[in-house]
Design goal:
Elements (H helix, E strand, L loop, with lengths): L1 E6 L5 E7 L8 H10 L8 H10 L6 E5 L10 E4 L9 H4 L14 E2 L4 E6 L7 E2 L5 E2 L10 E2 L3 E3 L5 E4 L3 E5 L4 E5 L1 E4 L10 E3 L2 E4 L8 E4 L3 E8 L2 E4 L4 E7 L6 E3 L3 E3 L2 E2 L2 E4 L2 E4 L3 E8 L2 E4 L5 E9 L2 E7 L7 E5 L3 H37 L6 H38 L4 E8 L3 E5 L2 E4 L4 E9 L2 E8 L2 E4 L1
Parallel strand pairs: 9-13, 14-16, 15-17, 16-18, 17-19, 18-20, 19-21, 20-22, 20-23, 21-24, 22-25, 23-26, 24-26, 25-27, 26-28, 27-29, 28-29, 28-30, 29-31, 30-32
Antiparallel strand pairs: 1-2, 2-3, 4-6, 5-12, 6-11, 7-8, 10-11, 12-13, 31-34, 32-33, 34-35, 35-36
Helix pairs in contact: 4-5
Length: 466
């Protein structure tokens, strides 16, 4: 038997070509022995050799050994951790609000939240050629990790953790950020959906009717807020203008700033500043409401502020009813109303209890100090309730007096300033003292002195009593 061995360049395949004399018997063991003597010791295909012998496949190369190719390692990866979504009830699913759907594409994260998992590379699987020599795999490469803003590695280096509340941004260069500012390029509409963000929001366009923008920080709208709800829980709101259509609300913990307000409902913890007109709007501010500039007019609606309401003109020559109330923080004002309402109800209930108590007492006196057991129990309960209610009334009366005394002292310099004209139809309330203008007043300041409304003249930053 003659056998010619040929091994592939990569050492993974071995072929043998067998030739034999006529009637010469070739055995499997002969071929395997030849391979081993030639150094081929791994991946010998015994079934292929048996088939060669059986079929007498001579003078043709036959694959008789096959090595194991190495498996290269997999590269490392950064896998974003998808937040768990609560399953909606079938009833809610049946009522799809298209304004909420786009928000699901924004991944909002909180400080301390795990946002990505780092998958390490694998070393690969070792191979072996037909000569039994090891073939080393190519190990995977580590993931290209670029930590951006407001993110950090976990202590074990296996997770990426947000360091601030914000929107998760995975960039094309492999970096991961948590951005504390959400930028909306264009309008807030069905394309963007409602916004609810734990940082600052910047909108380059308008906020369309019926939509909502809520943010923990400041909100900037370069366009108009149109019959929408915009709320900043810990910051200020700035907009080109607010067209409320008496729908929605614009509310900020600090300031609300715009160039015009029309049929708007606005609340600010500090100031409402409008570089232009405020028309037919409901405005509440903890400190001041100002309409500045040549078009700084307040006409129609209701304005409530802690210290100051100021405008170029207040009211209109047509006598449009305009209500101005100053001298108390709107929240304190609400607290006073609540206390007064509770006192009125408690006094009414106390009066009813007194009548019941007197009736039962008269019955007891007629019966020589005796009452049926059920009525005696009512008598005792009514008496105890009267004591408790009197104590509550006394506490609330004292609290109300303290609040009213405090705001009189605190807001003693509260004033309404019409830099040009206070028109007829304007009603001013300061500490529940009312002044109604039935004629035009030029360059006037309305203020309170000794619990009475006084009028002063306006001259820049000063006023003189008249």
């Amino acid at each position: 038997m003659k056998a010619q061995l040929k091994v592939s360049p990569n050492g993974l395949e071995a072929y043998v070509t067998v030739s034999a004399e006529e009637n010469e018997e070739i055995t499997k063991d002969q071929i395997i022995s030849h391979l081993q003597s030639s150094g081929v010791v791994y991946g010998i295909l015994e079934e292929a050799i048996e088939d060669l012998v059986k079929r007498k496949t001579f003078n043709v190369p036959v694959l008789v050994a096959l090595g194991k190719e190495p498996v290269n390692g997999e590269d490392g990866q950064i896998v974003m951790i998808q937040p768990e979504r609560r399953e909606e009830s079938e009833q809610i699913k049946d009522k799809i609000d298209l304004r909420e759907l786009p928000s699901r594409t924004r991944q909002i994260v909180k400080a301390g939240q795990e946002i990505a998992e780092i998958i390490p590379p694998t070393p690969g699987v070792e191979g072996r050629n037909v000569f039994g020599r090891s073939l080393n795999p190519k190990p995977g490469k580590p993931a290209q990790l670029k930590l951006g803003k407001n993110v950090k590695l976990s202590e074990d280096g296996k997770r990426i953790i947000a360091q601030a509340d914000g929107i998760l941004v995975a960039r094309t260069d492999g970096s991961i950020d948590v951005n504390e500012i959400l930028t909306i390029k264009g309008d807030v509409d069905y394309a963007t959906g409602n916004i609810d963000f734990p940082g600052e929001v910047q909108v380059s366009g308008d906020v369309k009717p019926g939509f909502t923008v809520k943010a923990k920080g400041n909100i900037t709208v370069n366009g108009v807020v149109e019959a929408a709800t915009v709320i900043s829980f810990e910051g200020s709101i700035s907009a080109l203008g607010i067209k409320g259509r008496e729908k929605g609300i614009v509310k900020a913990k600090d300031d609300v700033i715009a160039k015009f307000m029309e049929n708007a409902i606005v609340e600010a913890g500090r100031s409402v500043i409008v570089n232009g007109p405020i028309t037919n709007s409901q405005i509440r501010a903890g400190i001041e409401v100002k309409a500045t500039g040549n078009k700084g007019i307040i006409a129609g609606g209701s304005i409530i502020a802690g210290f100051t309401v100021e405008a170029e003109e207040i009211g209109s020559p047509l006598g449009i009813r305009t209500s101005i109330e100053i001298g108390s923080d709107p929240q304190v004002r609400d607290q006073i109303k609540l206390l007064r309402g509770k006192l009125e109800l408690d006094r009414e209930n106390l009066s009813k209890l007194v009548n019941i108590y007197r009736t039962l007492k008269a019955m007891m006196e007629k019966n020589q100090g005796q009452l049926p057991p059920d009525k005696m129990e009512v008598y005792r309960k009514v008496g105890q309730t009267m004591i408790n209610l009197r104590n509550t009334i006394e506490i609330n009366e004292k609290q109300l007096q303290e609040i009213e005394s405090e705001i009189r002292e605190r807001f003693s310099r509260a004033k309404v300033v019409a830099r040009k004209t206070l028109h007829p139809g304007v009603e001013v309330t300061i500490f529940e003292k009312r002044f109604y203008s039935d004629r035009s007043l030029e360059r006037v300041v309305v203020l309170i002195e000794n619990q009475e409304i006084r009028l002063g003249g306006y001259s820049g930053d000063t006023q003189s009593n008249t």
